[in-house]
Design brief:
Mean pLDDT: 95
Bound molecules: zinc ion
CATH superfamily of the largest domain: HUPs
Number of domains: 2
Low-confidence stretches: none
Distance between the termini: 16 Å
Helix content: 40-55%
CATH topology of the largest domain: Rossmann fold
Largest sheet: 3 strands, parallel
Strand content: 5-15%
Shape: globular
Number of helices: 15
Length: 370
Amino acid sequence: MRYCTNCCLPDTKPGITLDDRGWCNGCRTSLIKKEVDWDARWRDLESIVDQIKAKNNPFYDCIVPVSGGKDGWYQANVMAKEFGLKVLCVTLAPHLPTTEGINNINAMIKDLNVDHLKITLKNSVIKNLRRKCFLELGEPNWAEHCCMFAGVVQSSLIYDVPLIVWGEDISFEFGGIQSKESKPSAIEIDQGDLIKSRSVLDFLGDDVLERDVFFYQYPEYEKLKKAGIQSIYLGHFHKWDGRAHYNFVKERGFKGREAGPLSGNYINYDNIDEKLCEINIWLKYIKFGFWRPTDQTCYDIWNDRLTRNEAVDIINKLQNEFPKENFQDFLNFHSLAEEEFWSTVEKFRNKNVWEQIDGQWKIKTELVKL
Ligand SMILES: [Zn+2]
C-alpha cells in the first residue's frame, strides 16, 4: 500500500496508479481540470440544449436524477433555470430516509418549480438484494447503484425524454477505473466504477424474480440510440466542485446535517439523505484501507482548500470512527444479527492492508506527513 504524495489516496483503490512523481489519478484529474477551456465546453453544452429545444418535446426536455443532495439540486438548477428546459427530476427513493433528506428534496422541488418522479422499489426485493450483496460482495449498495442508473434511464424511455443530465463522472473526478479522460457522453454509465461487470440477474432466487428487477436493468444501448436519447455528464461541461455546489444550494434552502458530521466524516453534507449507505462506504476501509475522511479531504486538496499535511491529521483522527449512527437501522433492515455482521466484515478484511497487533486491527502502512 502506497499513498499518493500530493493527496492521501492509497493505491489500493481500484484503478489508482501512482505516476513517477507519486501522484494519483485524482491529482492528475485536478491538473487536467485546471487546463480545460471551460468556456468552450459550456458552449458545447449550449449547442446540445439548442438541439433539445428544437425538438419541441411534448412533455419534458430533460431528466435530472436527484437524491436531495447538493449536486442534483445544482444540476437541475442549471438545466431548469439557466437553460429554461422543462425538467423532470427523478429520485430513487431511499428506504430509510432522514429528516434532512426529506426536507432538502421538498425544498429543492419548491425552489426549482419542477415535476418530480420518485421510484420506490418493492421493499422485500431491495431488502433481499441488499442482504445478498452484503453477505456475498461485502457491498450492500451494489444493486441499488444499478438502479440509480438504470431506473433513471428506463424512465427516459417510458416518458420519451431525449436528454439525461448526470453530475460528474466519478471515475474521472475521484480517480477510478475509467479515469484517464473526461467524456461528455454518459451512455455507458452502467459500465462505471459503481457497477462494474456484474449483473443483477446473478442475484435472482425464490425471493427475487426476474420480473422484480425491471428498474435494476440498464436498457440496451441500441434501444436508447433508436429512441434518440442523449445521456451526458454536466461535469464535462462545467468545472465540477462539490463544495461550490453546496455553497450555492445552501443559499436556496439546502441544509447540512444539524447534529454535525457523521462519524468518520469531516463535512456535514455528504450523503445525509438516507441511513443505509454509510456502512457501504465504511466497508471500503476494510477492503482498501480508506473511506470517507480520505475521500473528503483529498477532494479539498485537489481544489486547493487543504494541504496534504492538514489532511493527514484529519484522516488519522477520523478514519477509525465507526458509522455508529445508523448501525442498528442497518442490522434491522437486513434482518442481521450483530455477530453475523461482524463475521461478514472479517470475511472481507484485506490482509494485505491490515495486520493484527495485540488483538487490534491496524493499517499496515501508516499515513504520514511529508
Ligand atoms: Zn493524489
